[in-house]
Amino acid sequence: MNKPTRRTGLFLVITGAIFWGVGGTVSQKLFQQYAIDVNWLVTTRLLTAGFLLLTVQFFWKDRSQILGVWKNKRAAAQLIIFGLLGMLAVQYTYMASIKYGNAAVATLLQYLAPVMIIIYLILRKQAVLTRRDLLTVSLALSGCFFLLTNGSISGLSVPAPAIVWGVLSGLALAFYTLYAIPLLEQYDSLVIVGWAMLIGGFALSFIHPPWQMDFSSLPVEAYLYIVFVILFGTMIAFWFYIESLQSLSPKETSLLGSIEPLAAVLTTVFWLKEPFGFFQWIGTACIIGMIFLLALKKKTASKTTQPQKYKRSYRIS
Asked: Do 58 and 100 form a contact (C-beta atoms < 8 A)?
């Protein structure tokens, strides 16, 4: 396969980020308008997308890694933990936050993960607090305050369950990001994420089997939305993101990937007609500014520098 051009890489990463953001909004519509069960959607999404990603690995990349990861006992154990406490936790908490609130708030709260990682590394004395870190944390905290209160300290403008699940989603993503590093130094991203999705989907199948669903009551558009969430909002979004790294630097993909929360906010407000106050827009701007600040951060030679493969797996919404 020929290496994609820079123009192709830009198209892939921007399209993938938009699919990720819009996928959350479409999920919100499925929960609120068609009463789709969160457990069922997460289970089906993980199983289907995981299988498709491994299929891509089989036909277009090193197929020996698909089973090779299971021949290493340590890697296999790490993969199971990653699938349950990383992938499944991220997917479920994110979708639950959407169900109780909306896709815009859920996506923005999940993007607090980098700040949580910064705080964790500083507490573990694996990083030194810098002025940039202080600015990053300040933007995140200010953004959360305005986003969740709309500038009023008398009450929340977002349902409490949505906030709790959203913060848990950020914590899960932070764990997901840090725990994946050793695995991604040995194996391709498609292999690790594909298997992690299958593991998480299989585990959740015991709570809500994917075949237990009353499909007869769903209109045609609901099926189309489900296909979009699974195919475009998950599998293709991640595949495009990885492929963009063939012609773009990790910093560029991280920066352009920040289009995701913007896509989620815009589609939530203008398509689903969710109310968004003036101060919530300010909070959104703060969090997106934080993302840009992190993406533009120059690579250092410190022990906290992230390997390129780590950056490949950072966002899985």
From this structure: no
